[in-house]
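Quick review question:
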Protein backbone atom coordinates (compact mmCIF):
# COMPACT_ATOMS: atom_id res chain seq x y z
CA UNK A 1 0.00 0.00 0.00
CA UNK A 2 1.49 3.41 -0.93
CA UNK A 3 2.30 5.50 2.11
CA UNK A 4 0.04 8.37 1.03
CA UNK A 5 -2.93 5.98 1.09
CA UNK A 6 -2.31 4.67 4.60
CA UNK A 7 -5.51 5.30 6.61
CA UNK A 8 -5.21 8.24 9.00
CA UNK A 9 -1.64 9.10 7.91
CA UNK A 10 -0.99 12.78 8.62
CA UNK A 11 0.57 14.51 5.61
CA UNK A 12 1.43 17.67 7.57
CA UNK A 13 3.85 15.99 9.98
CA UNK A 14 7.35 14.69 9.18
CA UNK A 15 7.98 11.08 8.33
CA UNK A 16 11.14 9.17 9.13
CA UNK A 17 12.06 6.50 6.63
CA UNK A 18 14.47 3.78 7.74
CA UNK A 19 16.76 1.71 5.54
CA UNK A 20 18.96 -0.98 7.01
CA UNK A 21 22.24 -1.61 5.22
CA UNK A 22 22.70 -4.63 2.95
CA UNK A 23 24.32 -7.90 3.91
CA UNK A 24 27.86 -8.13 5.27
CA UNK A 25 29.80 -11.29 6.05
CA UNK A 26 28.96 -10.89 9.73
CA UNK A 27 25.27 -10.14 9.25
CA UNK A 28 25.14 -13.32 7.18
CA UNK A 29 26.79 -15.37 9.93
CA UNK A 30 24.88 -13.73 12.79
CA UNK A 31 27.90 -12.10 14.43
CA UNK A 32 27.38 -8.88 16.35
CA UNK A 33 28.69 -6.09 14.13
CA UNK A 34 28.93 -2.77 15.91
CA UNK A 35 31.80 -0.45 15.08
CA UNK A 36 33.75 -2.94 12.93
CA UNK A 37 33.71 -1.27 9.52
CA UNK A 38 32.82 -4.15 7.20
CA UNK A 39 31.98 -3.70 3.54
CA UNK A 40 28.89 -5.12 1.89
CA UNK A 41 29.05 -8.54 0.30
CA UNK A 42 28.16 -8.85 -3.38
CA UNK A 43 24.69 -9.92 -2.28
CA UNK A 44 24.58 -6.94 0.09
CA UNK A 45 25.24 -4.60 -2.82
CA UNK A 46 22.43 -6.22 -4.79
CA UNK A 47 20.12 -5.86 -1.80
CA UNK A 48 20.99 -2.19 -1.40
CA UNK A 49 20.29 -1.50 -5.06
CA UNK A 50 17.00 -3.39 -4.80
CA UNK A 51 15.80 -0.90 -2.17
CA UNK A 52 15.96 1.93 -4.69
CA UNK A 53 12.50 1.44 -6.24
CA UNK A 54 10.80 1.68 -2.83
CA UNK A 55 12.39 5.11 -2.30
CA UNK A 56 12.57 6.50 -5.83
CA UNK A 57 9.22 8.32 -5.81
CA UNK A 58 9.77 10.00 -2.43
CA UNK A 59 11.08 13.56 -2.25
CA UNK A 60 13.42 13.56 0.72
CA UNK A 61 14.21 16.83 2.46
CA UNK A 62 17.08 15.21 4.34
CA UNK A 63 19.01 11.96 3.90
CA UNK A 64 21.24 10.79 6.74
CA UNK A 65 23.60 7.85 6.91
CA UNK A 66 25.65 6.14 9.58
CA UNK A 67 29.37 6.85 9.17
CA UNK A 68 30.13 3.14 8.71
CA UNK A 69 30.86 2.08 5.14
CA UNK A 70 28.18 -0.60 4.97
CA UNK A 71 25.54 2.07 5.51
CA UNK A 72 27.18 4.72 3.33
CA UNK A 73 27.48 2.26 0.44
CA UNK A 74 23.87 1.20 0.89
CA UNK A 75 22.78 4.83 0.71
CA UNK A 76 24.77 5.29 -2.47
CA UNK A 77 23.38 2.19 -4.18
CA UNK A 78 19.84 3.08 -3.09
CA UNK A 79 20.18 6.37 -4.96
CA UNK A 80 21.56 8.76 -2.36
CA UNK A 81 25.29 9.25 -3.01
CA UNK A 82 25.27 12.63 -1.25
CA UNK A 83 23.70 11.46 2.00
CA UNK A 84 24.84 13.43 5.02
CA UNK A 85 26.95 11.43 7.47
CA UNK A 86 25.28 11.45 10.90
CA UNK A 87 27.86 10.44 13.54
CA UNK A 88 25.14 9.43 16.02
CA UNK A 89 23.69 6.80 13.68
CA UNK A 90 26.35 4.11 14.12
CA UNK A 91 25.36 0.67 15.34
CA UNK A 92 25.28 -0.38 19.01
CA UNK A 93 28.84 -0.62 20.38
CA UNK A 94 28.86 -4.29 21.40
CA UNK A 95 32.04 -4.08 23.45
CA UNK A 96 33.44 -7.51 24.27
CA UNK A 97 30.73 -9.17 22.18
CA UNK A 98 31.87 -7.52 18.94
CA UNK A 99 32.22 -10.23 16.31
CA UNK A 100 30.58 -12.85 18.55
CA UNK A 101 27.52 -14.84 17.52
CA UNK A 102 24.71 -14.61 20.06
CA UNK A 103 24.20 -18.37 19.72
CA UNK A 104 27.72 -18.85 21.08
CA UNK A 105 26.94 -16.57 24.02
CA UNK A 106 23.81 -18.58 24.80
CA UNK A 107 25.79 -21.79 24.96
CA UNK A 108 27.29 -20.46 28.19
CA UNK A 109 24.26 -18.41 29.21
CA UNK A 110 21.09 -19.98 27.75
CA UNK A 111 18.84 -17.14 28.91
CA UNK A 112 21.00 -14.38 27.39
CA UNK A 113 19.15 -11.63 25.53
CA UNK A 114 20.96 -8.48 24.49
CA UNK A 115 17.87 -6.35 25.14
CA UNK A 116 17.84 -7.23 28.85
CA UNK A 117 21.41 -8.38 29.55
CA UNK A 118 23.35 -5.84 27.51
CA UNK A 119 26.98 -6.20 26.46
CA UNK A 120 30.13 -6.08 28.61
CA UNK A 121 32.34 -3.03 28.07
CA UNK A 122 30.05 -1.64 25.37
CA UNK A 123 27.15 0.78 25.20
CA UNK A 124 24.14 0.35 27.43
CA UNK A 125 20.72 0.20 25.81
CA UNK A 126 19.94 3.61 27.30
CA UNK A 127 23.04 5.09 25.70
CA UNK A 128 22.01 3.77 22.29
CA UNK A 129 18.50 5.14 22.86
CA UNK A 130 19.91 8.56 23.72
CA UNK A 131 21.55 8.69 20.30
CA UNK A 132 18.29 7.64 18.68
CA UNK A 133 16.41 10.35 20.58
CA UNK A 134 18.78 13.01 19.29
CA UNK A 135 18.21 11.97 15.70
CA UNK A 136 14.43 11.92 16.19
CA UNK A 137 14.59 15.39 17.71
CA UNK A 138 16.43 16.57 14.62
CA UNK A 139 13.78 15.06 12.35
CA UNK A 140 10.99 16.78 14.27
CA UNK A 141 12.72 20.16 14.52
CA UNK A 142 11.97 22.89 11.96
CA UNK A 143 14.46 23.17 9.13
CA UNK A 144 16.47 26.32 8.45
CA UNK A 145 13.70 27.72 6.24
CA UNK A 146 11.27 27.34 9.13
CA UNK A 147 9.46 24.33 7.71
CA UNK A 148 9.37 20.93 9.35
CA UNK A 149 10.99 18.32 7.11
CA UNK A 150 8.32 16.25 5.36
CA UNK A 151 10.44 13.18 4.63
CA UNK A 152 13.74 12.17 6.19
CA UNK A 153 15.65 9.00 5.29
CA UNK A 154 18.00 7.37 7.79
CA UNK A 155 20.32 4.63 6.51
CA UNK A 156 21.78 2.70 9.41
CA UNK A 157 21.86 -0.62 11.25
CA UNK A 158 19.55 -3.34 12.54
CA UNK A 159 19.59 -2.90 16.29
CA UNK A 160 19.94 0.87 16.09
CA UNK A 161 16.99 1.30 13.73
CA UNK A 162 14.81 -0.98 15.85
CA UNK A 163 15.55 1.26 18.83
CA UNK A 164 14.78 4.33 16.71
CA UNK A 165 11.41 2.80 15.89
CA UNK A 166 10.63 2.14 19.56
CA UNK A 167 11.56 5.68 20.55
CA UNK A 168 9.54 7.19 17.66
CA UNK A 169 6.54 5.34 19.09
CA UNK A 170 7.38 6.77 22.54
CA UNK A 171 8.11 3.27 23.85
CA UNK A 172 10.96 2.16 26.08
CA UNK A 173 14.01 1.24 23.96
CA UNK A 174 13.76 -2.40 25.03
CA UNK A 175 10.58 -2.66 22.95
CA UNK A 176 12.75 -2.54 19.84
CA UNK A 177 13.07 -6.27 20.37
CA UNK A 178 9.64 -6.69 18.79
CA UNK A 179 10.63 -5.22 15.40
CA UNK A 180 12.40 -7.68 13.12
CA UNK A 181 14.36 -5.86 10.41
CA UNK A 182 16.15 -7.66 7.60
CA UNK A 183 19.05 -6.35 5.57
CA UNK A 184 18.21 -3.57 3.08
CA UNK A 185 14.59 -3.40 4.24
CA UNK A 186 12.66 -0.11 4.12
CA UNK A 187 10.32 1.15 6.84
CA UNK A 188 8.30 4.33 7.35
CA UNK A 189 7.61 5.93 10.71
CA UNK A 190 4.77 8.41 10.60
CA UNK A 191 1.46 9.17 12.27
CA UNK A 192 -2.06 8.04 13.01
CA UNK A 193 -3.57 11.52 13.01
CA UNK A 194 -1.15 13.03 15.59
CA UNK A 195 -0.06 9.81 17.28
CA UNK A 196 3.35 8.42 16.28
CA UNK A 197 2.81 5.22 14.30
CA UNK A 198 4.42 2.73 11.94
CA UNK A 199 3.08 3.31 8.44
CA UNK A 200 4.99 0.47 6.82
CA UNK A 201 7.59 -2.00 8.03
CA UNK A 202 10.19 -4.08 6.27
CA UNK A 203 9.39 -3.59 2.56
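Suggested answer, residue by residue:
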Amino acid sequence: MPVDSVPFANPTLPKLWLLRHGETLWSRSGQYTGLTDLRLTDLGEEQAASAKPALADVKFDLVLTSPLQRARRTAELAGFPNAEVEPLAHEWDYGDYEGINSADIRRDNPSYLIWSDGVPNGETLDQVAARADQIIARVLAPMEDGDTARNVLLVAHGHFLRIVAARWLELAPVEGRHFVLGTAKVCTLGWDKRTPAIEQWGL
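Why it works: The chain has eight helices and six strands. The CA atoms of residues 137 and 168 lie 10 Å apart.
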